[in-house]
Task: structure prediction
Amino acid sequence: MTHSRTSIFTHLDTPLAPLYRRVMNVFTANKRRFVVHLRPEDVAEALRAGGSAPVGQDQVDKALSSLKDWGNLRADPDTGRVTTVEDFYRARYLYQLSREGEAAERALDVFEQEVGRRGELQAVALEDIRVRLHALTGLDERPDAAVVHSLLLEIVNRLDSLAANASAFMGGLQRTIDLQDIEEEAFLAYKDRLIAYLERFVSELVVKAYDIAVTLRELGDAEGLLRLAADREAADVAPGEEAEPGEAAESKLLEWRNRWSGLRSWFVGDRARPCQADLLRGRARQAIPDLLATISVLQERRAGRSDRSADFRALARWFAQCPTDADAHRLWRAAFGLTSSRHLTVESDAGDDVPASVSWSQAPQVEISVRLRATGSYQRRGAPSKVVDRSRQRAHLAEFVAAEREQADLARRRLATGRPILLSELGMLDPAEFQLFLRLLGEALSLGPGEVRTRTADGSLEIAMHPVDGYAEIRTESGVLRGPDHELTIIDLTSPVEVSGG
Result:
């Protein structure tokens, strides 16, 4: 009997779905113990031993027959215990998982694992990847293919686990911030541990991702190492009628190139595609203020501060408590004040204007112009409204913008000298200079410790910085910034380059 590929999932949408799942779990558990065939009485005994609701032999027989019809199980005649002619003619079967049924069970296991996965930020996986990449760089000129293959497999597997768990964790964290999957009491109880957890991972990610990126740049495309792993895998590929002998190795090499490209894009990236490690770091850092904002909202609710939702709930209670409809109408007018039409302007031949407090049912009839009814536009008669002169405000705004630009240019000329200078020698910085300095310092330190060289996002400044011995103090009007001393070079790329002629 042939079965469609979707019929193996039919047992999930039936009234006896729990029984079918228990029966399939019995077969799956025995398959792990290398027990392939099971008799109906063996299945019934396993179900009774499971401690769940008792199941009769007739129910088991019917469940096995249905699962066989859907293609989850395969039935073979059981002739092992035939002792009489009656036993031979009696229908006895040995059941085992079919190929499709086993694939369906694996798919269901993966589905349940993914749905139940909480996710985590695996700082240990970052360390594992870093150590194995360093092991690849430390191999000799003719490395052992088994060692290379093992290291590459471990790196790829750890990256897959890191990416999948990080995605699941950040998705669950967003639902936690939105208070979808957690109660308020539970959230307030573990908020401190969650923030500490995020801060620890971000600090580990900054250091480890930088080291991994440097090692990946050192390895380059790693073509030789990838070919060793591909040839080792291609040696175990079973021969086929369609593929040529050399095509298996090229196919495996293409797979490893794609994996290596994914690894590089995760930690290195380029201008077109930022690396995933930076995106994960930014999302994890943004989650900390989001968590703090959620905590503030919860604290405000606990303190009894009024918000819009609470106001509407109180108003709904007042409407429900109104004794008559007239009282409800008075409450509506007092709460919203939408009964008058002060915003509506129409043409009227009446000599006296009707006050807005007069009800529409008692006011005189008003004729609407044909143009207003046909086009929806209306032009008021008489002189147009005077245009307000805003020249003084525009001049003031232009002066303010010019002053800000002048301060920023002075700060650029003060800091972007193109010559190396120690942070301890910067001296006193005004607010504009200090703001520019902090922005440039953040751009450089985001690349990690050690000697760095980078450009600002607009490409106007280039920063080079490397640490030196000692500590620096930078004084400003707002206070003193202290930290390890560095030699800093800032180059203004927008200024013309001076060329000395002979």
